[in-house]
Amino acid sequence: MSENGWRVCSTCRKPLPFAEGYWACSVSTCNRKKMPYTFCSVECWDAHVPMMRHRDAWAEERTAPTREEHLRALADEQDDPGEGQAPATRERRIVGVGSGGKEPTRLPAVDEATLPRDVLIVASKLKQYVRARSGMNTSDSVMDALSDIVRASCDAAIRRAAQDGRKTVMDRDFDD
Fold first, then answer.
1. What angle separates helix 123-134 from helix 141-163, to the nearest 10 degrees?
2. CA dist 128 to 4, 33, 79, 148, 173, Å?
3. How open is the CA angle 34-13-19, to the nearest 5 degrees?
4. Which residue has the higher pLDDT, 54 or 9?
5. pTM (2 decimals)?
6. Among 70, 1, 13, which Cα is nearest to 40's?
7. How far apart are the C-alpha atoms of 86 and 10, rounded to whole Å?
8. What integer pLDDT is reported at residue 96 of this predicted model?
9. Residue 95 reports pLDDT greater than 60
10. In the beta sheet, which residues pair with residue 95?
11. Higher pLDDT, 105 or 5
């Protein structure tokens, strides 16, 4: 922290002023409590994307804490050093949506009827596996049944990732 700002831009090292807008990366690994990436502009955020090899990322505009909020958060950290909490910020809007223009994955209330019901299984690959494994044929209706199982498993994994505060579903979220 300096007199000019509460942090510096992770790319250009320019101070980020108190109570003003800054940009954060949407990728969970860029938002670690001990070393979060913060940027003064979308251009600085964009410069870090290839270096970090993000596939699907966007810049989130946030508002920096006021000087008082920041000092209070620092005092709380000193009182409880095990926590290592970063100062609170207020999220405002999301821009710079990457890959396909999709909004970030949140857990909003969703009408089940609006979710896609496409087959999620590659039929030829599954049929080839079943035949090689057992010599049996596979009914086409198996694809719908397995797709339902995959959807349920994905829903559970999404909940686990959200509980961990991540925006990325990982292989470990599928462990029971």
1. 110
2. 64, 46, 61, 20, 28
3. 70
4. 9
5. 0.43
6. 13
7. 15
8. 45
9. no
10. 59
11. 5
